[in-house]
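batch_manifest entry 22 of 60
target: Uracil phosphoribosyltransferase
source organism: Streptomyces formicae
requested by: lab member K.T.
priority: normal
notes from requester: please return tokens only, no post-processing; we will run our own comparison against the previous entry in this batch. if the run fails, retry once and flag.
--- input ---
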Amino acid sequence: MPTTTAPSIAAHLGSGVHLLPQTRQLRALHTVIRNQEVRRDAFVHASERIMRMLIEAALDLLPYERREVTTPVGAAYEGLRLSSPVCGVSVVRAGESMEGQLRAVCPGIRIGKILMQRDKQTKQPRLYYTSLPADVADGHVLLLEPMLATGGTALATIQLLLDKGVAEENIVFVNLITVPEGIATFCRKYPKVQIVTSAIEQRLNENAYMIPGIGDFGDRFFGTDIGLR
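--- output ---
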């Protein structure tokens, strides 16, 4: 439930929750995407730069194994490679905005889709559509969803993946922006899921809007918000 006082999340930071380094560059990008008067092309460009950072950080949480290769000068290099299969799963429709950056970093990666929305009558998350790789349970999953507010839809999505056989510790939730309320709820329910995010807001207001917030990310990214051109 939204509150006026956000819960403490200090215990989760650095363990289950990984916040991107709050560099000046990242703050400048957030300044662009939070501006209500920004043009859509600038919004998309800045968003995708942040998404690339998030994808790179998420991949760093996955397991790697040693791999030796020979360099062009004939020397041995002790390197690494991913030791587990990886796929992406986007939460339709805002999560689809993150697919391009995932494919840019991991060409050929398979991406499943889940459409989970809040039912207007029951107020509970309702599954409308799912299409996942047949072997989704055999490796790690990067779950793509830009917003984590109250956490209801995200929790239902994680449960669906668990029901499909995905191990909880094999899920990395790649998230653009969240709030302490969502983190507290999420980590209490699924403590083994890793969250990678670029911003943790102050709190939710009485209408469950993030403060200071970013608006409806999906509408702004895909141009269905009439406020952007």
